[in-house]
Structure formats: structure tokens, C-alpha cells
Amino acid sequence: MTKTIGLPVGSGLTFNTTLGILSGSPSQADVNASQLDLTLQVDDGKGGAGSFPFSVPVLNYQSIIEQPLPTDAAFVNTNFSLNLLQYFQARMGRVLAINVTGLPTSFSFNPTTSVISGIPTTQDLQATQPIPVLIQVSDGVSQIKRTWLLTIVQPNNPPVASSIPPAEATAGIFFLRDIRPYFRDPDNDTLVYSMAGLARCFRVVLLWCCVVRNA
After folding, report:
1. How far is residue 158's CA from residue 81's CA, in Å, rounded to a whole number?
2. 111 and 167 share a domain?
3. pLDDT value at residue 87
4. Are residues 52 and 76 in the same domain?
């Protein structure tokens, strides 16, 4: 009895015609095919023959386990740290080799600890955001390449107020107090003012709280 089977060129599988065993490790050619549509031909040597089609799905086994990379922004003048081993892991006890390129000059990558770190500067804001960073990960068997989008932003600082001297208002006399000179925004943002606790006779027109007393 003879058994033959049609495997694609470059396949990592082999077929033993004596034992009738299909075995081996699928190659990239097998992975590209996604599914092997094969035909088993059997001949008993006495004129009896038959063809039997069957299929073998081929999955792309990835030996590196990965999680989505974070999208958090890095703030100017603030320490930033990202441990890539939290997002890439090797199967079967293999050791990962990670390479990172495309980082701004204020950042660095430690290949021993697999940590990206740095303190962004205002100069980094001049780069087109987000900044594409190439991460290559290999375990000696498989290799993957991922683009991590690094966004650097200026943190928003709250308004700062200087000491506002107390003010008095006399009943029946129009009162006006401009409080804008006592406030500033470190980021030069436009400030919007509001006020609570005013007497019913007052309207908010950038007024400071005051004490109303009869003349």
C-alpha cells in the first residue's frame, strides 16, 4: 500500500509514506497558507486506489505574550518610567531581548531592566506629537515590532493668588473692586472668574467680597 500527500513548497511538514504519518513544525510558508488543503492518495498495489482530501489549519503561534502598550502622556519636568516587561513576556522560560529606538533625547532605555525613563523638557514639545517609538522584542525564536506613540504635554498649573486686602462698602453707594491684578496663571491661560456668598445687592463684575455697613 502506498500513501502520498501534496504538501506546499517550503512546508515544514513531512509525510512518511511507509508509516502514513504527517509530522513536523509548520514553517512560515505554512502559516502564510493559513490552511493546508491536502490530498491523501492510497494505492493497494493491485489496481485499487483512492484519493481522500482533508485540511490542516495552521495557526501562527506567537511565543511572546504581549499586552497593549499604555497611552498615558508624559508631563514636562515630571519623572516618567515605563517597564516594558509589564507588557511583554516570554513563554517556556525564555529570556527577552528588547531594543528601543526613536526616543527623545530627554529619555533613555535600559536594556538590562527593560525600562524607559526620563524627564521631558519643554524642548520635547517642539516635536510632532505623538512621537513614534519603535520597540523590537525577541526571545530567540520569535520577534515582534511595535510602534509606541509617546505624547509629551505641558502640565496644567492652577491659578496663583496674591494676598487680597479687605474692602468695605457703604450702603447706598456704588462699590466696584477689580480683583484681576491679584491673580495670575503660571501657564498664561485665560482666567474665568466666579464668586459665591455675595449679598443680594451685589452683582459679579470681578468684585471682591466686602463688608457692607451703614454710613
Report:
1. 25
2. no
3. 96
4. no
Sheet holding 2-5, edge to edge: 2-5, 35-43, 49-57
Collect the ranges in the chain with pLDDT lower than 50.
204-212, 215
Quote the CA–CA distance of 111 and 108 in Å, as a whole number: 10
Last-in-domain residue among 40, 57, 74: 57
DSSP 8-state assignment for residue 26? -
Are 68 and 140 members of one domain? Answer: yes
The answer on 174 and 137 residing in a single domain is no
State the residue range of the domain holding 90: 64-153
189 lies in the same domain as 170:
yes
Mean pLDDT across the chain = 84
Peptide bond into 130 cis (omega under 30): yes
Contact 104, 97 (CB under 8 A): no
Q: Are residues 146 and 191 in the same domain?
A: no
Q: For the segment 70-121, what is each residue's pLDDT rounded down to a tens digit?
A: 998 999 999 999 999 999 999 878 899 999 999 999 999 999 999 999 999 9
